[in-house]
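Consider the tokenized backbone below.
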């Protein structure tokens, strides 16, 4: 598997989430601070400008005649321009709506909608706008007649000035906010790592405990502290572990009792079955000599056949019991594999029905011939029994590669193993449909064959050939094979 460039564990996600929240918090705070600071700066500039313009106008307006001329207005705007101070505004004045606009040295930049709004206004108006790519502030100040109450005199004074310096101050706030957000996020990494480590510590303990249980340590428990969800998960895990341990102990106890029962029953049946076999053997001889009536001879043959099946079943049960008890042992010796195959077939009179293939020059191996004989007898017997009438069975022995020392393949050209049976073919008491129909076999033969293969340190596998038929492969380790003519030590 390719290693991921970016880890995607829970710890990484916790740290990333913590940093994301920190970054969003820092950016949100910076945005709100910037917005408030920007509004405060602009409002302060606007209020100061209105206050300063009103003060200048109030000091100069009393000297104007009731109906000022254009020359009077020009003189007024020039005086206002000279007293602009830090704002460096440009001013203009208009008397009566629709009258000519009189400016000072330079006409101020005004938004189009401001004069119309100022004609009906009773207080100062301010409007921000953009002029030649820069932010500007425009003011409109209606001048009142002398007296306590506000009475419009018809004179309106306009002023506008650039907000470029204020814009630079606001831009510096943005830069400071951006520069301050990064250290906040970096500083948040330390508590994020600490929090992630603290949160994931019980998760790691839980994972380690689960791995121990998967390895067979059902007495594994974890230490639980706290009252949060992870603590509840730990308590649930411990309860599950106790239940599994109790179930496993109960199952082992029941399996041990079942194995003892099978071994005891097999042992107890062995003696009476030996006597029954001896008696039925004698009666078989009488039946074969013709001294018994035909019906009696037929019944006797049926009893003798079932007795032999029962004997084989008891022997299989005793063999399985030895495997379960760990009492089965190997008696290895060096043999010629081809000779072992032919002897197995000859003992059961199968030599004319089975084709044997061995390497030229022979193939020697160190193994337990009795147990390999049991394996081969089961495999070849199944192939002949389930392959159908006239079935052709092939047995091929070869020296394998890639860690396999000896490979013996038993194949037939029958219907093969049903797909639903194939995964369980080596389970105990598993029998094919044909065996169930005829009552043949105990369902333990292949299980015993697989146990004998494992006892040698090898494997036994089953499959269906693409050309049809079943294929069983016995694989023994490399140490089991010696070269032709070489003697194993």
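A designed sequence for it:
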């Amino acid at each position: 598997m390719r290693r991921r460039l970016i880890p995607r564990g829970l710890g990484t996600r916790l740290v990333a989430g913590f940093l994301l929240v920190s970054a969003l918090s820092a950016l949100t705070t910076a945005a709100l601070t910037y917005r408030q600071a920007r509004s405060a700066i602009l409002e302060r500039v606007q209020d100061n400008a209105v206050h300063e313009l009103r003060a200048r106008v109030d000091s100069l307006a009393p000297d104007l005649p009731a109906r000022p001329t254009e020359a009077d207005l020009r003189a007024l705007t020039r005086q206002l321009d000279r007293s602009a101070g830090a704002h460096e505004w440009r001013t203009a004045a208009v008397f009566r709506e629709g009258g000519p606009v009189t400016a000072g040295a330079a006409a101020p930049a005004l938004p189009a909608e401001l004069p119309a709004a100022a004609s009906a206004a009773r207080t100062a108006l301010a409007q921000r706008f953009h002029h030649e790519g820069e932010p500007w502030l425009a003011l409109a100040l209606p001048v009142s007649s002398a007296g306590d109450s506000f009475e419009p005199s018809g004179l309106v004074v306009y002023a506008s000035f650039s907000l470029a310096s204020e814009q630079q101050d606001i831009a510096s706030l943005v830069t400071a906010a951006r520069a301050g957000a990064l250290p906040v996020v970096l500083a948040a990494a330390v508590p994020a790592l600490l929090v992630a480590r603290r949160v994931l510590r019980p998760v790691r303990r839980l994972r380690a405990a689960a791995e121990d249980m998967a390895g067979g340590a059902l007495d594994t428990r974890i230490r639980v502290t706290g009252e949060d969800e992870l603590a509840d998960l730990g308590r649930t895990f411990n309860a599950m572990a106790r239940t599994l341990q109790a179930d496993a102990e109960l199952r082992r106890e029941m399996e041990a009792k079942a194995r003892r029962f099978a071994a005891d029953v097999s042992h107890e049946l062995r003696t009476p079955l030996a006597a029954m076999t001896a008696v039925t053997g004698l009666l078989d001889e009488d039946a074969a000599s013709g001294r018994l009536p035909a019906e009696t001879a037929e019944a006797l043959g049926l009893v003798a056949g079932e007795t032999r099946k029962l004997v084989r079943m008891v022997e299989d049960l005793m063999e399985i019991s030895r495997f379960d008890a760990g009492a089965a042992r190997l008696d290895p010796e060096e043999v010629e594999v081809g000779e072992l195959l032919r002897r197995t077939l000859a003992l059961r009179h199968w030599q004319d029905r089975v084709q044997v293939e061995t390497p030229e020059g022979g193939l020697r191996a160190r193994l337990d011939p009795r147990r390999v004989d049991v394996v081969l007898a089961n495999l070849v017997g199944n192939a002949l029994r389930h392959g159908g009438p006239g079935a052709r069975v092939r047995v091929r022995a070869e020296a394998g590669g890639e860690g396999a020392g000896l490979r013996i393949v038993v194949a037939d050209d029958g219907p093969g193993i049903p797909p639903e049976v194939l995964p369980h073919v080596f389970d105990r008491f598993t029998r094919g449909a044909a065996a169930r129909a005829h009552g043949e076999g105990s369902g333990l033969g292949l299980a015993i064959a697989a146990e004998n293969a494992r006892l040698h340190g090898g494997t036994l596998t089953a499959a269906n050939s693409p050309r049809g038929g079943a294929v069983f492969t016995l694989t023994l380790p490399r140490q089991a094979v010696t070269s032709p003519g070489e003697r194993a030590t």
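The CA atoms of residues 107 and 369 lie 119 Å apart.
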